[in-house]
Amino acid sequence: MRTFRTHHRFAKIAVLFASIPLLNQVASAQLPPTTLTKPSTPEKAPNADGFIQRWVILEPIGAQGLTEGAVRAEVSKEYFPGQLTIIPHDGDRVTVAGSELVWHAVDTKNYNVNLFHFARSLSKPTSDVLFWAVTTVNATQEMHDVRLAIGSNAASVWWVNGQEVIDIYGDRQTVIDDGVSHRIDLKKGANLIRVAVINGGGATDFCARFLDAHDKPIRGYTVTVGPLATNLP
Amino acid sequence: MKDIVLTTALLSSLAFALDGQIGIHDPSTIVQCDGKYYTYGTGGSSLVSDDGWTWSRGGTLPRRGLAPDVIHLGDRFYVYVAANIGAQPKAAINLISSKSLDPASPDYKWEEGGVVASSDGVEESNAIDPGVFLDPTTGRLWLVYGSYFGFIREVELDPKTGKRLHPNDTPRDLAINCEASDMMYHEGWYYLLATHGSCCRGADSGYNIRVGRSRKVTGPFLDAEGIDMIQGGGKLFIGSESRRIGAGHFGLLDLGEGVQKFSMHWEADLDRGGASVLDIRPLLWQDGWPIAGENMSNGTFEIESVRTGTALELAVEGMPVGGRPVRRPRPPGAPMPSGSPPAPDGIGGPPAGFGGIFAGTGVPIPPQDVNEVAMKWPAGPIDLRLANYLSQAQQKWTVTAMPEAGGYPGSPYFKITLAGTDRTLAASPGLELVVVPAFTGAPEQLWRFDQLADGTWRIMPKSVSGSKTPVALSAIGSSFPTLEKFDALSAKQHWLLKAQ
Taking burial as the number of CB atoms within 10 A of a residue's CB, which of A48, A49, A146, B497 is the most buried? Predict the structure, then answer.
């Protein structure tokens, strides 16, 4: 029944907002991203449970569909040059379909990154959208046979150092360790983590951490926006 | 997890009998020596196997007798062999021992250890059918023995020599109306297993294995109804089933890592001309009582993770069975079913009947045709994942025995294919999983199924390229399977097989 109720509720909300033009954007602009702050330190350790709490996120791009085919189609589009290779910094700008979008560096207070808070605080849409987010994991030594473990609302595709490692689809909630990569190695130094999250409607967020060979969270690294010491926003 | 036993124990009635030469009566506990499995039966017969699945005739013990039992202590194998002295119930149980059970080994040298128990033909005992038990909590060694001429009795042995301790002490009486007794320990309880009913009558044999338990190794052993086995009590453990008649002579085969099996014989396997044959089955536990589990059999299943409740599936885009939901018009004037939720198909007033996305098609929806939905799937190797079970084609797996590929104690290896296709589950280098286009017989495409104590299953590839460590199918996270070293205490490697 959850799916029905969700859709039913949003159908009603959509009807309400349709009768009050621009209320959505106006109301959203008045609500701060209560779980997100600007980074104020050069680097940040994962939290006690190993969750990565620092990301740089691009303002949302319109996108439709949560099925595997629809998500693959959206993610495979080139929205801006170097979308699978760039290391963005806070305030960087890209142009997508004629609109200028801004990358924002954020720290989250929670295990997850609340994209609904993020977009709403910028008066941006939260439904039928695609978010790009990037972070850098700085390892003091090589790490072998680790796994990226993520949850997302809703569908998402993940890359580590340019290699796609996880894809999950459908109208799903952010379940901790929902999607887990094969065993991968992290190199000494900067390792780039990139994600595309596509939301249909309602809440949207994601979480990510690394697990060791025993499926225990890894905390022995730092997180920066861009390589360490080159990128303080 | 207790309820799991009830739901999965019914899985199989057509499991595969052991392969090869498996004719034996009164098999001893199965022991391993230098990688081979051995069991000894009445009349000097023995069976040997490299893998526990395919058996052949073994050597003959220097002492022939009735229903031997064997235990491995230190660097020696101690075999207890009973024989009647003249007519029953005058009998004696003799000890022989050797460092090896392999006749080809230089250590295959039997030494006589003397009589450890006897009956004089007058007393209420028949000193045959020995069962030897090492108490894992104390290190003390015990022997139970006896048949229908009186009591099942218990004496203590010396774990350093295998010989009788305190030979002048009177043996302790434990049970009546049974024979072929043996003991085991599990989570604070001692279990006495003994065979009731008549033996040696082929398909007319009423042999069945029963069990009682006690907090003390010396009893009393009560069944689940509280009846002492010395008063004839005994909870049924396993009796005749399907085309196998008369179950007798329990023997524990503990494979470690929480995987337990047991050996026994059927008085008559109707598929083998009514011969008495060896069998090996999983040993399950429920509410503190042993349960006879099932070996794997052919079938089509949902393979569901106990940890996550999600099902193994080919990582392809699923199509809802019957197509994607559509809103259908409600029949004019049709009443709303009592208690049904409001249909979300209109904003302009109350519904006039039952329609919308809850109404269905009005006719049964056939199973999804894999050949239709598979047209969009890649032809080459495809990854695996876990997802909510939706009865879709990419979630149904056909398990087929591959007896020519060998096996493991009790069962052959199996291939696992996506139902209705040749696409085959395989272990891939790096201890991950992949579905390949077709079965080739490669060892990474052969799978071992062991039913675990809670009735769930451990699923292991025969081998993985580049890995010497045995690994099992494991649910990592909610949505992904992998291969990891088996941990009996983790639900990650416990799987439910739900017949389709």
Answer: B497
